[in-house]
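Figure-free illustration: sequence to structure, shown twice.
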Amino acid sequence: MNPTDERTAVEEFDVVVVGGGPAGSTAATAVALRGHRVLLLEQQTFPRYQIGESLLPSTVHGVCRILGVEEEVARAGFKTKRGGTFRWGRNPEPWQFSFALSPRLADPTSFAYQVERSRFDKILLDNARRVGVDVREGCRVKGVLADEERVRGVNWTGPSGEIREARARYVVDASGNGSRIHGEVGGSRTYSDFFRNIAVFGYFAGGARLPVPNDGNIFCAAFDEGWLWYIPLRDDLTSVGAVVSRESAAAIQRDPVTAWRRLIDSCPEVRDLLPGVPQATEAPYDQVRVRKDWSYWKTRLWRPGMVLVGDAACFVDPVLSSGVHLATYGALLAARSVNSGLAGAPDESRLFDEFEARYRHEYGLFHEFLVSFYDMHQDERSYFWKARKVTHVDTSELEAFVELVGGLASGDASLGGPGQSVQSGQSGQAGARLAAASSELDEAVARLPDSAGLRNPLFEAATIRQVFQEGAVLQERGVFGGPLEDETPQRPGGLVASEDGLTWVDPGR
């Protein structure tokens, strides 16, 4: 049966990907590069608006290079981002986080981009088409086709309302936090009370820039009610958003524009970058939007025939610009498992357990870092910051984090004491670890003024090194064709990536 014959009611593919954002495009492209038949169904028509505009180097120089799209992204003219600038913690003056001073991020690739997601996402989706993915926009997936053994495909509605079926060996759900089908893998979403915030954001037609060479940095400024981001997208376009307590939700929903303006005025460091600058009037940047900025993870990320990636799987607070990284990284992990399964690897469970263990591990590192990062900001007068101290993390949340994210599923007990269970004290160990990490970050920031730009004390902090380690390996794979050091399994009996990064290899064979 011809998989592109529009007259057929049922079509056959190797893989169906639901969702065309960075996670979906990455998964689809990485599978198609191995010669498999891939259908990608996207509900909207690109270009379309999306938030999450600040990238990390691992996406640009790692994932994009593996997918063969790095040069096109470079030609797009996005604003270069060399790090981050923060007004955060005890230091009253802003401080810099530079990618260039990481020992593993060499200068030629020690940058990322601030991107207009409408353009960036379309570049990735068009690249998927170019490598052979059958991309269909304006198509709404209604549900999955499954039996007792596995998921077998999806049913979907086309642009004209026609109902179709696509059968496949694997379904990849990359349809975002509003996914209609993530529940098909089983399990549930676990929400973090610590990060249950709300974001209100919009755009200005310009704005001041930080001094060169940091003029493309994201600027994150803590203030009494939460924190603000300031992202220079173009000379005439700046993304500005406030992340505040969920208790502010009613007032923000009632009048988002007034709330947004008031929060900006409450933070002098951001307010003073926008003197007399008007709100943007070009679509789609002419709106002020509100989003629940709640971190969550799924208790299960796959079942036979189906896997979750991107926001369908997990989401974490955006202060470190980790959203696109986690989405594309998880999608690449899933593609390795899918490619290996389609190539006839005998143990499907082992393939997808490797995907899930690594994905949870990476999410856990970012979650742990961000809890510690929030904790280092000292403001005892503020309800927002008092409620986000490690000492106020609920025991049940720590237990859930240790069990579901911190490593028990992956065999990594880094958040707990050796040989201990959650019930016998791992949550207490986790709390102590988070507090120690916060103190280490605080001390590293305090040493920045004495570093003379020759080193970055932040990368001497264990938490920082760990959170960027896997991203650095991705970059090395993209730039050099493989990691600079021999890759070892992340856990006993685990797998490692193939040379091209598209499948799993058993190092014991």
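We now fold a second protein in the same way, so the two outputs can be compared directly.
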Amino acid sequence: MPRLPSLFVSHGSPMFALEPAQAGPQLRALGASLPRPRAVLVLSPHWMTPGVRVTTTAAPETIHDFGGFPAELYTLQYPAPGAPDVAARALELLNADGWNATADTEWGMDHGAWVPLRHLFPDADVPVLQVSMPRNLDPEGAVRLGRTLAPLADEGVLLLGSGSITHNLYEFRHDVGAAGPGYAYEFVDWARRAVTGHDGDALVHYLERAPHARRAHPTSEHYLPLPFAYGASAPGAPVQVIDGGMTYGVLAMDAYRFGDLAQASHA
């Protein structure tokens, strides 16, 4: 199998599971274009821990880690199997690089994992595991975390950073199709230029380089899966930008595929 690309996806609101809008069909097409992964390893901002942890369960639970949504959302399940063998390999790589990572047998799949995976792999037949986001992670550390786990891409594992390219919930609008304010589109345009230009320095120093960075991301946790996915990719790998549109006025739904597009799609 060729080296798999790494992905960044915007997972939006939990309602993305029921409201695919513009991004859902595009993620489904993206998943269908990939060679079947041995497993998907997900970094999500909805599992933050004091250090690095990796899920080792063979049957991860679908976690409904949100409140105040329609009852239908809480009935959804994503019954993908776990990947204990890949978890063991991930722990080996992490600890060899000084992350002092530990196994976790309790965590399942939070909505940052299963909601976008419902679109990418709707049959829930690809094994899934998660790596936690350390509470003290910064963009430089996120790149390093991706690089530490990058050898898994050569072993058939899809490395997935699930976050949001913009994430200011203070400005959340209740209409899924609401247009965003100008600053959100400016940040999206900057991010597209940074990833397609392989500007890792800009991605690390986004608070100083990106327009309206602190307004687009009042906190960093939904941004960090982007430098993680960048770090997990091969140096200079071609980038595909997937325009997911804007939802709820403030949640841009772009995704990025870092990898050899022609090789992966025809494997």
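Summary for the second example: The first strand starts at residue 6 and ends at 10.
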